[in-house]
Amino acid sequence: MTGRDAGVASGLLSTAQNLGGAIGVAIASSIAASHSRTLVRHGYATAAALTGGFHWALWVCGLTGLAAIPAAFVLIRRTRNAGAMAAEQASSDVAGYPSTRRSRDESSSKISTV
Length: 114
Fold this sequence. Notes:
Layout lengths: L5 H36 L4 H47 L11 H6 L5
């Protein structure tokens, strides 16, 4: 990503985080309210029904977070590798001169005699 696009990327990331948080709160509160209402209809006390509703909502949030962990590791790893390669390329191409570093295979195949 170029420096010119950094502001746009930052704005998109911030918007996605805010939107995700709002959707998450809406889903969790809907689950809590729905389950609480169901428990009240079955004769539970209001406090017990609210506790049960929040219990279900927190379980759903926790399971969603656990399901997101593998996806996060896969996406972070790919992004980190691409970023590391780009950073290495940028640092090796100082002032327009290409890198003179050899790959691991090239350097290990040559034996220097002194």
